[in-house]
Amino acid sequence: MAQVVVGIGSHVDREHHIKRCLEALEAEFGELRVSRVFKSRFDSRFESELMCAEPSHDVYNLVAAFDSDTSVGALRDWCKRVERANGRTDQGPVTLDIDLLCVGDLAGIIDGVSLPHYDILRFAFVLKPLAELLPNARHPATGQRYAELWADFDSDGQCLRPVNFTWRGSVISRVN
Q1: Are 83 and 89 in contact (CB under 8 A)?
Q2: Distance separating alpha carbons of residues 138 and 75, to the nearest angstrom
Q3: To which H or E segment does residue 84 belong?
Q4: How does pLDDT run across 76-112, given as a tens digit for each residue?
Q5: CA–CA distance from 84 to each of 92, 102, 119 (Å)?
Q6: Cα–Cα distance between 126 and 105 in angstroms, integer?
Q7: Which of 18, 21, 110, 164 shows the smallest number of beta carbons within 10 Å?
């Protein structure tokens, strides 16, 4: 069994799509460890039409971890199916985005997936929740702890703040 870490984001009907994603993850893989949910606002340097329909569009992001012996290719395919089931298309705003961030200590291109995901080291909305959820886990490529990576991260221009988010009757306002 490997620890699988996914990044989850939504630009449209955010709470609905994130809850559906968490429910699907839990139904498929069992117990989840979930970070706080963060509201981010993309700086224009990172905007793209595919990511946001309008400038400064607020996005909800979080990280979830679970244990699985599913192959990387099968995990990727599962993520894509759940995205499509939640209305994800190649055009317009993103209803749901699920990215494989890490699968155990795998590093490289496995089943066509680049692991660990390059966004871990690029975006506060990925690294901050990852560092809170798994502070002592190590980035498979750099060997650094996620808490150390976050402490050294330059988040200028990346607006990020936690939001209260209710899932399974509880407000996720801290790391579970």
Answers
A1: no
A2: 21
A3: helix 72-85
A4: 999 999 999 998 988 877 889 999 999 999 999 999 9
A5: 13, 22, 21
A6: 18
A7: 164
